[in-house]
Amino acid sequence: MASGRSDATTDADALLAQLRAFEGRPSGPPAEARDEVNQAMIRHWVDAMGDDNPVYVDEESARANGFPGVVAPPTMLQAWIMRGYLSQPDGAWKAQRDASGEASAQEQLFDALNAAGFTSVVATNCDQEYVRPIVLGDRLTVTSVIDSVSPEKHTGLGDGHFVTTRLEFTDQHGERVATMRFRILRFRPQSSRPKDVALRPRPAITHDIAFFFEGARNGTLLIQRCAQCGVLRHPPRPACASCGSFEWDTVTASGRGTVYSFVVVHHPQVAAFDYPLPIAVVELEEGTRLVGDLIGIDPADVEIGMPVVAEMVAVDDELTIPMFRPAVPVGAGRVGAVTGDA
Ligand SMILES: [Zn+2]
Fold first, then answer.
1. CA of 259 to the centre of ligand 1 (A)
2. How far is ligand 1, taken at its centre, from the CA of residue 288, in Å?
3. Within-domain flag for 337
4. CATH code for position 11
5. How far is the CA of 215 from the centre of ligand 1 (A)?
6. Ligand 1 centroid from CA 310, angstroms
7. Are 48 and 99 within one domain?
8. Is position 192 within any domain?
9. pLDDT surpasses 70 at 216
10. What is the edge-to-edge ordering of all strands in the sheet holding 277-284?
């Protein structure tokens, strides 16, 4: 429809006004926790997280630390109101429809964004504010409101609007116990951009991590080592978690490792990457882990525990990063990729 710049600007202004009209509207009906805050769920959580703070499980310790009794880990906030996957076979969207059967404000907002071409989504921020400790027996309710919609912004993923949803958590007395602001970016996918001009996103190269990318450019995979106690660490950071020393040097990794965990990314698609994109957490034989693309393998063939070797890949003129390819098993007829040709 737009025939010139001023029309396009007018269109953007009109869309923003339309989007901003949703600010302050509930994004769906309130959701009440299915269960009171209880010790069993807390135990499962702290076991899974490896959190051994006794105030989450021991009454005496909790009181000794000034709490009225056992408290729930603050990070469990969402766990209390989360719906079971199978308890809503029609999906979360339908569950958010109000009694009249009309689409929720959030659905209407997302419909408006889709219609304007902002069809991709990525979560960007989550801020939580805790008003008081949540204790055993509390019964939480959450209400969610469309907090704000930003003007159109230019981002590395594409042009889009940030949408912030504010979730207010209240207790059985209607008192607020916490607030969470959850921000997503709804953006226009850039897949139509020619691939040969799209560069990978630049890593933030700080004083702490510069050695890693320099090493990669020189064909070596470097691991940071505490100069005081010798503990290896990755990702790089200023101080040793074991002894607190700020002194460090590096060791050259062999490049051999195993797939500790992996994902295969399908969406959102960003120019400069090929999809489906297998990405692994690789456990190096030195003991540290790092994240890298898997290359030279069909994503369907990736397995946890499979041996891999690092390869420094120059993805463009400025950036070389370590990726991992399957190691050729010993006795498979040629020497492993790490040592070159047979
Ligand atoms: Zn140390």
1. 26
2. 14
3. no
4. 3.10.129.10
5. 22
6. 26
7. no
8. no
9. yes
10. 289-293, 277-284, 256-265, 307-314, 320-326
The model's pLDDT over 42-54, given as tens digits with 9 standing for 90+, comes to: 999 999 999 999 9
Per-residue pLDDT, averaged over 152-165, amounts to 90
pLDDT value for 101: 64
Q: Flag whether 56 is in a domain.
A: yes
pTM above 0.70, yes or no: no
Residue with tokens 């949703």: 22
* Structure confidence by residue, pLDDT tens digits, 188-208: 987 655 555 688 888 888 888
d(CA 284, ligand 1 centre) in Å: 19
What one-letter code names the amino acid at 90?
Answer: D
What are the C-alpha distances in Å from 317 to residues 182, 309, 310, 311? Answer: 37, 23, 20, 17
CA of 246 to the centre of ligand 1 (A): 8
Q: Does residue 215 share a domain with residue 151?
A: no
Distance 49 CA to ligand 1 centre (A): 24
- Note whether residue 340 is domain-resident: no
Domain that holds residue 290: 197-332
In the reported structure, the alpha carbon of residue 252 is separated from the centroid of ligand 1 by a whole-number distance in angstroms of 18
Contact 171, 177 (CB under 8 A): yes
Tell me, yes or no, whether 274 and 326 share the same domain.
yes
Count of the separate structural domains present in the chain: 3
CA 239 to ligand 1 centroid distance, Å: 8
